[in-house]
Design a protein that fits this description.
Helix content is about 40%, strand content about 30%. It has about 375 residues and is α+β, with helices and mostly antiparallel strands. The protein folds into four domains: about 1-25; about 30-190, no CATH class; about 205-265, SH3 type barrels; about 275-365, Immunoglobulins (Immunoglobulin-like). The longest helix is centred in the middle third of the chain and has 29 residues, at about 110-140. It is flat and about 80 Å long. The relative contact order is 0.08.
Length: about 375
Amino acid sequence: MKKTSIITFVVSVLIVLTGIIYTSQRLKNVTFQEEKFLNNIDSDIEIIEFEINEVRSEYEQFGGGLVKNILKTRLEILNATNNLLQQRRLARKYYININYEGSYGSYGTESEKQELIEQLNDEIEKQKTELIKNQAKSEMYTAGLFKSMLEASVATVNLNIYLLETKKLALKYDLPFFVSTDTTESDIGKYGSGSNESEKGSEFTAFWIKTKTVNIRNGPSKNDSIITTLKQGDKVYLVEKQNDWYKVKVVELDLIGWVFSNLLSDEYVAPQPKFDILNVDTRVTESNDVWWKYAWQFTVKNSDSESIVFSATIEFLDKDGFVIDTDCEYNLYVPGNKEKTFRGYALINIPGATKVAQVSVKTRQ
């Protein structure tokens, strides 16, 4: 009996030693793909851990309110993502097979997976651009309701970026897309801490002016007097509804008025750039029996502080205004508060070339 126990013990020790030697040998023979995978995931873990420290530090600066709740959500997302990445790393390093139920994304091939990741990268870049704009606006104010709203907007866009980054990592490493949060969607519409006592906890839905200009009136009727005029891209906040009219708050002007609902959009509308087309001109510089060469030029005056990039279609018209031919130019650039003249030419075939009486320019962004 004693001999049998000794033999059993020896066999068990040999099995364990064999497993250790086998695992050790496999770790020594890590393939290039596995080494690349481990390096990539180590790099992503390092970034996540750095962001956790940054967000935690920012979180501790707030005593309460919406921004603190959003930062709490970001911390939960980052910690959950970090835990899953650590688990995936150890599983790959020690050859443990893990298959998650509900892994994020639906793709059939590696190329489809990369295409989804690229789509997420594009959306992340858009959100980062929006973040920069909101941060710049926030820095213009030192306190007050509008400052609180902008800080909440910055925190919300940051949260959106982290959600997209988490989706990308879930796709990259075949992880479940896990988000645990106590912050509800309705919180995003609240002002939170920092606003006036009478406005704390109030909920406002944002809308944007979608036409070139809109009149804000002192009542829900076209017969009511105009108290201000807003331009395309301006933001207002819904206070109440009355049939097809919305009572809105214009934060920048600190006023409340009425606007027809069809003139508003619940999605962001970029403001129209302030530029004018000046001095449109054309003349024939060369001709033969087949075509005439029409040189054209026009000047653009940019009255906005921001640069503009646009495309232009130069239309050659007859005396009745009908289009005979066109020429197109792309990616035209004018710095803020500057004028710039653009020149080019078009070859217009006979007989149409002989009927050109005027030229016009149409722009688009």
